[in-house]
Amino acid sequence: MHPVSDEGRMRRFGGASTPKPAIELTMNINFTLLAQALAFAGLIWIIATKIWPPLMNAIEERQQKIAEGLAAADRSQKDLAQAQEKVNEALKEARTKANEIIDQAHARANQIVDAARNEAITEATRQKELAQAEIDAAANRAREDLRKQVSALAVTGAARRAGLGDLRMSQALTLARPYARAAFATARDEGAFAPWSDALAFSAHVAADPRVAALLANPELGRDDAVALLAPLTHGETYSRFLAILADSHRLPLLPEISGMFDALRAEAEHVVKATVTSAAELSAGELDAIKVALRKRFNREVDVTTAVDASLIGGAVIDAGDVVIDGSLKGKLARLQTALAN
């Protein structure tokens, strides 16, 4: 069997061979590929020159901004940590400084309290020594005068004229009464009315001083310091224990009332009436003797008279003998006259 050529095949399908159209087809295909290649190359060039660089620049710029943002965040975190550390250090330093200031304030307050207490104790001790020296120099007469003055001020009308209300006076006397009775019983058992009376008068005189009264109200004052402050230089152990009991019971401010009631109990035991005669002017010896005689007849007892001067009475005198008050002053008469006229 013979092979069929291309020309024969062409004839078999009904025509002669046409080589020219095949060449044109090949050229068309090559031109199309070339055009596509040129178009693709142009597209690549456009992308590479016009699109890709700005895109890469934008991406790089975005990456740089993100990196800068992350770096800034890291720096902010570090700055925040450093700031927090500084704040903690500042707070720690402030607390330390505040504690130092508080400690210094406490120390200063304690120094002030100690200095005030020492100064008050020193001053009271000095006054006590001066008073004791005066008592020793004046002997029994000076001590008796002091006792009378304190007694009159504590339990008689002189205290009421100083502005104490009846209720307040009654409360003070009620609180002072058991201590006065205990002191009286002790002095009676010891047979030492006069020493106890003098010691109580001295302690009452010191306790009545405003500076000492303020010191006695200070809770920082110890019992032993209070006893040393109020006790006279010459006193017995029993009297020191009595003052210690008053200090433990916070009754040292009642010493004037206790002293006055002790003297009243002593006077009653010795059958003596204590009276305070307050006049507008100083009484003469004859006038005072006449008053003593009248009071002896009135009470049928011995009379211990203490005198005082009050110019506001205008004239006459007021006699205060415990529960009995005789107002013979011109001021009292005018007041009664005014009341009568008003009624």
Structural features, described:
This protein is α+β, with helices and mostly antiparallel strands. Among the domains are: 114-270, Orthogonal Bundle (Peroxidase, domain 1), CATH 1.10.520.20; 272-343, no CATH class. It contains eleven helices and four strands, in the order H-H-H-H-H-H-H-H-H-E-H-E-E-E-H. It has helices spanning 6-12, 19-155, 157-161, 166-190, 193-207, 210-216, 223-230, 237-248, 255-269, 285-299, 330-342; strands at 272-279, 302-309, 317-321, 324-327. The protein has a four-stranded mixed sheet with strand order 2-1-3-4. Helix 7 (223-230) packs across helix 8. The chain starts with 5 loop residues before the first helix and ends with a helix. Keywords: ATP synthesis, CF(0), Coiled coil, Hydrogen ion transport, Ion transport, Membrane, Multifunctional enzyme, Transmembrane, Transmembrane helix, Transport. InterPro entries: ATP_synth_B-like_membr_sf (IPR028987), ATP_synth_b/b'su_bac/chlpt (IPR002146), ATP_synth_F0_bsu_bac (IPR005864), ATP_synth_OSCP/delta_N_sf (IPR026015), ATPase_OSCP/dsu (IPR000711).
